[in-house]
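Protocol step 4 of 6.
Sequence for 2-aminomuconic semialdehyde dehydrogenase (Eulacestoma nigropectus) entered exactly as in the expression construct, tag removed. Do not edit the line below.
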Amino acid sequence: PTMAHSQALLVLENFIGGKFVACSSYIDSYNPSTGVVYCRVPDSGKEEVEAAVKAAKDAFPVWTSKSPLERSQILNKLADLIEHDLEAFAQAESKDQGKTITFARTVDIPRAVHNFRFFASSILHHVTECTEMPTMGCVHYTSRAPVGVAGLISPWNLPLYLLTWKIAPAIACGNTVVAKPSEMTSVTAWMMCKLLEKAGVPPGVVNVVFGTGAKAGEALVSHPDVPLISFTGSTLTAQRITERSAPHCKRLSLELGGKNPAIIFDDADLSQCIPTTVRSSFANQGEICLCTSRIFVQRGIYSEFLKRFVAEVKKWKTGNPSDPTVNVGALISKEHLEKVRNYVKKAQAEGARVLCGEGVDPLALPPGNQKGYFMLPTVIAEVKDESCCMQEEIFGPVTCVVVFDTEEEVIKRANDVKYGLAATVWSSNVGRVHRVARRLQSGLVWTNCWLVRDLNLPFGGMKASGIGREGAKDSYEFFTEVKTITIKH
Ligand code: NAD
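Step 5 output, structure tokens:
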């Protein structure tokens, strides 16, 4: 870049031991809606991770000795500070990730705020177990303590939302953390670091090291002084993390990919089902692990569903993410856009029919967004269950619609993928809803709705979608070590 250009770039720094620290090398970060480099992210490695782990270890004794109430007050203060800057955070998230400003304003940042408030509250309400053995004269009880330095690794799709979903429970429980956000979406994590001191988070409790998975991420997961790793990202990366951390027997929580089915029975209320299924397929450009990508429709309503669904999808506007009327923003990167487009090409080559979107409808973009990574929401029909579009996670604005006849058949087909994260069932028959939900291999099942979350309850996937659950009780258990103590009188 020219001098004038490089001066205009936003340059991030690592946050270690309560201080911003420059790094010796940097990575370019693009604005996905313009295709222009606008930010430089530290390319941290072993050395930076080492410094961050040391800072986190040093901060541990003081932080862990604070009462849950003291920690809770600090978390609430941090939530207030982020909320106060909500608009600035939302603008930054939209620019950095390509998501629409509306989504960032209404989902990403409010949820990041809520994550801190939620765990600030829930940490005050846990009880441990106690049993008695009168004949032995014994009482047993469990005691929980923080584990130590937690390594937290998050993806690019919901940057601050998913990072704070880890930081909040980790520090609420009294751990200190070294976090590594995705190198593609680091800005809001850096902005949050600027608020930590004011919130009262002592130096070293939250350290953020920016950089790639291969360098900074691997240094963190293989560090001997980081006994616990919470990771959200792809199944492939999770395998690598499992291997790299195995020699140290680390505690792992893995929140991974999905290939989520929506099952729509003849008796579904289509006026609710159709707009919700459009949202579940295309919200955040389809870049949510919980997004629907296989829609099974019962034969009796198949053609009506297709017609109404496609008409509804066509109402969604794709374009400049900062335009509040836009529904679909830019995809995260040029490479990812290429990958998603290739899935549509493969489906076509296999004889599937593209009903709307990619390659079928024109995409008109404003002059400033011509080089951005945009793609229209795309619906594919007549695709075989064994096609890669029905088996692999595409993680973009592409959804497949197929027909089914019986309950038994659809359960089998819905379960016939390696993933098991989220499923949606649409029917007005209560008995059927219960039967089907029980038999789906899926960590979450939503019936007659989508993405309604109670953070109290477990979140996570089965099969290749992950190991472990997070939520009020589950996160508390994951981020603490339990001990059973027996007292004899
Ligand atoms: P990714 O696996 O490529 O990267 C995730 C994070 O891991 C990034 O911070 C990356 O830098 C880091 N990383 C990469 N290689 C690493 C390594 N060898 N060691 C340590 N860290 C490494 O995933 P992504 O492309 O950023 O995110 C998309 C994926 O995340 C999708 O598969 C999606 O389904 C999944 N996801 C899952 C959930 C969930 O809760 N289950 C939520 C959101 C996203």
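Step 6, annotate. The first strand starts at residue 10 and ends at 11.
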